[in-house]
Amino acid sequence: MPYQEQEEIEKLKKKLKQQEKKNSEIRDQMAIQRTIFANERTLMAYMRTAIALLGGGFAAVKLSQDLYMEIIGLILMPAGLLLAIYSLYRYVQKQKLIERQREDYAHTSHHHAALHEKETSSYESTD
């Protein structure tokens, strides 16, 4: 194979490796976004349940003539309020954890590219 073709192949391999590194970092960033969205979906699910408990308890107290339904309603309303408070607490804690891990994440594609260049310049490729 002519030297020019080998050189072109090496350049293409180098570009491909660099693009693979960039792609892996894009996947990492997208994974972080998916984690944030999952945390938000979980909060919404908790809130939906809390509102249902509050609404059911309120309806049981206001619309029922029976004492046991009023007692159930009086139990459901604080349970819904506690669930809403817990869900907000849980959401904030998870969001802080996600942000800490996001801050600790370091982009490495430029480091990989520099390392690859140094490695390829230190020896002659036999491919």
Largest sheet: none
Radius of gyration: 29 Å
Overall form: rod-shaped
Distance between the termini: 10 Å
Low-confidence stretches: none
Average per-residue pLDDT, rounded, comes to 85
State the helicity in percent bands: over 70%
The number of strands is 0
Which series of helices and strands comes N to C? HHH
Beta-strand portion reads: under 5%
Give the class from helix and strand content and strand pairing. mainly alpha
Counted by DSSP, the helix tally is: 3
What is the oligomeric state here?
Answer: single chain
Organism: Pontibacter aydingkolensis
Domain DUF202: 34-96
Protein name: DUF202 domain-containing protein
Subcellular location: Cell membrane
